């Protein structure tokens, strides 16, 4: 506790604002637990940025923790590109304080002689990624906490290619930030270096989204969409992109259209949660809509619900939408003629069905650690290869490479194109998904996410993962474990033969078991929330579409059995 008190008292100097000092003095005098949570560690600038609860202290998001990030990044940019005019672009979402924090970040950059393009109002993360390249910037920042609860905010950093920072830049930037004290932050703005931007970038981004996500689908006039932005930024882009692509029957959920950091109509603004889309699904049932789309606050994730074989609106998961979007894009490329350099990509905890499709179409399949920055890095690392599309199980997808992060704007349009075209041809999005299962096998996944908050929660997560590794699973539902992939040691071991393979990905706290029947179980801590996540994937052959219901039920029962067996 002495070190915590020392850290807190260092914030009582004249460098810090009077209201900040007042709050800290209150914590010291009256709230020892709050003091501990605010100062027991430094909020880490991770390999993609920073996310945390807003408030005072070293373990919170505030003008000083973000100011230090920005000062370190400014130093690094000036050291790296000092012989040219350094430029950055900044966007922010609907979170509390996002606009004021974005202004503070802009001021620190400008105080360091860096030209800043600052969006005048909230904008989507994919537009920020796009703007980095469009404006020829050296870096981009977006102030967002994605789908975290209202008390959170965050700071994500993008590099010259429009993708999130990756090695070696991430480690070098972190080292620069960690070398600084708060007193090193230059807060005095050079306002002449800050330029507000809006419609000019919007126009080219909308045009690029339509160009990349539209495939001249039939049946647009007869296709009804219900859209909800869940109080987030996508209201600034998706309705307009759909309109420009020719969709006229778009119903926006007005109660959720107003950007609001409290997210008053949902428990969580996360399209992965069925409850988040309940209002939109209800509206879809009322008006007979074909599809529901909902996006998270910064518009990089999308949730889709479509009518199933019984005509009932059903929420799909991220693996399902990713599979069908990728299959559609592969088919379009095939019709034009493959050139032999195409690839699709996903992450190590997403459905193995993506690899089966890549094999069937004869294109390269690449897999990455969790996080879209790694997919963006693939595009940069293989400039002679053509990225078709790819995604991850957590409701993120990217169409082509004009945006270098998951992009709910273009992906929404792509989903509508697939569904409208299918309906015009007497099918549906859902039926096309089942047809894909017939072609490549029915893969079914389940995510078990356990929240463990605070200091004790972090220790509990750490111990759970140690236990999962030190007490290895030997069989799952009667199927023996064959491979254990340990991404911490970069070794995949066949426990039956003793064969070992090197995992050629950066080290990460992930452990994956694979059994004889192709069942996979992965465990990892979340990089953005106080959670530990277990991903289970299993599969079965599907001979014909008519068998889908029974085979799907069998796999559901198997997933439940695995969860019970693992005591999760």
UniProtKB/TrEMBL annotation:
Belongs to the phosphohexose mutase family. It holds the Pfam family PGM_PMM_III. InterPro entries: A-D-PHexomutase_a/b/a-I, A-D-PHexomutase_a/b/a-I/II/III, A-D-PHexomutase_a/b/a-II, A-D-PHexomutase_a/b/a-III, A-D-PHexomutase_C_sf, A-D-PHexomutase_CS, Alpha-D-phosphohexomutase_SF. Keywords: Isomerase, Magnesium, Metal-binding, Phosphoprotein. PANTHER family: PHOSPHOGLUCOMUTASE 2B-RELATED, PHOSPHOMANNOMUTASE 45A. Residues 44-182, 211-305, 317-437 form the Alpha-D-phosphohexomutase alpha/beta/alpha domain. CDD domains: PGM2. The keyword Transmembrane does not apply. GO terms for molecular function: magnesium ion binding; phosphoglucomutase activity; phosphopentomutase activity. The lineage of its organism: Bacteria, Pseudomonadati, Bacteroidota, Flavobacteriia, Flavobacteriales. Its EC number is 5.4.2.2. Its cofactor is Mg(2+). GO terms for biological process: carbohydrate metabolic process; purine ribonucleoside salvage. This is Phosphoglucomutase (Alpha-D-glucose-1,6-bisphosphate-dependent).
């Amino acid at each position: 506790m002495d070190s915590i008190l020392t850290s807190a008292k260092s914030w009582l100097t004249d460098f810090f604002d009077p209201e900040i000092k007042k709050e800290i003095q209150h914590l010291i005098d009256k709230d020892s637990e709050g003091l501990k949570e605010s100062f027991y560690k430094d909020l880490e600038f991770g390999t993609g940025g920073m996310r945390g609860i807003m408030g005072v202290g070293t373990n919170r998001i505030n003008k000083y923790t973000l100011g230090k990030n920005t000062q370190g990044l400014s130093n690094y940019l000036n050291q790296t590109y000092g012989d040219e005019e350094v430029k950055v672009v900044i966007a922010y979402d609907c979170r509390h304080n996002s606009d004021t924090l974005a202004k503070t970040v802009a001021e620190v950059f400008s105080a360091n002689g860096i030209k800043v393009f600052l969006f005048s109002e909230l904008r989507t993360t994919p537009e920020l990624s796009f703007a980095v390249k469009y404006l020829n910037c050296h870096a981009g920042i977006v102030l967002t906490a994605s789908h975290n609860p209202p008390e959170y905010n965050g700071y994500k950093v993008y590099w010259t290619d429009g993708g999130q920072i990756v090695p070696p830049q991430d480690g070098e930037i972190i080292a620069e930030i960690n070398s600084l004290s708060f007193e090193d932050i230059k807060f005095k703005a050079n306002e002449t270096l800050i330029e507000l931007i809006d419609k000019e970038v919007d126009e080219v981004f909308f045009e690029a989204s339509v160009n990349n996500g539209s495939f001249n689908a039939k049946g647009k006039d007869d296709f009804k969409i219900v859209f909800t932005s869940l109080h987030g930024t996508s209201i600034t882009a998706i309705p307009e992109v759909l309109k420009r692509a020719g969709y006229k029957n778009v119903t926006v959920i007005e109660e959720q259209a107003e950007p609001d950091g409290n997210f008053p109509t949902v428990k969580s603004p996360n399209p992965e949660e069925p409850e988040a889309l309940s209002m939109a699904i209800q509206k879809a049932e009322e008006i007979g809509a074909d599809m529901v789309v909902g996006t998270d606050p910064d518009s990089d994730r999308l949730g889709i619900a479509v009518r199933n074989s019984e005509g009932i609106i059903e929420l799909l998961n991220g693996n399902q939408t990713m599979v069908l979007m990728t299959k559609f894009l592969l088919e379009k490329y095939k019709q034009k003629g493959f050139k032999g350099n195409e690839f699709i990509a996903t992450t190590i905890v997403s459905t193995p069905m993506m690899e089966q499709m890549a094999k069937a179409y004869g294109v390269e399949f690449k897999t990455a650690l969790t996080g879209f920055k790694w997919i963006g890095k693939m595009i940069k690392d293989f400039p002679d290869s053509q990225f078709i599309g790819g995604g991850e199980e957590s409701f993120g997808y990217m169409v082509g490479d004009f945006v270098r992060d998951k992009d709910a704007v273009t992906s929404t349009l792509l989903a509508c194109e697939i569904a409208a075209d299918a309906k015009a041809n007497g099918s549906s999005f859902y039926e096309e998904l089942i047809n894909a299962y017939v072609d490549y096998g029915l893969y079914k996944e389940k995510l078990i996410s356990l929240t463990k908050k605070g200091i004790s929660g972090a220790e509990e997560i750490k111990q759970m993962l140690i236990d999962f590794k030190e007490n290895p699973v030997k069989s799952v539902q009667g199927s023996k474990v064959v491979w254990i992939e340990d991404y911490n040691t970069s070794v995949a071991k066949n426990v039956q033969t003793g064969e070992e393979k090197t995992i050629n990905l950066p080290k990460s706290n992930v452990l994956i078991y694979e059994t004889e029947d192709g069942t996979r179980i992965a465990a990892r801590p979340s990089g953005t929330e106080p959670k530990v996540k277990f991903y289970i994937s299993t599969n079965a052959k599907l001979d014909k579409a008519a068998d889908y219901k029974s085979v799907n039920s069998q796999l559901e029962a198997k997933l439940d059995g695995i969860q019970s067996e693992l005591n999760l």
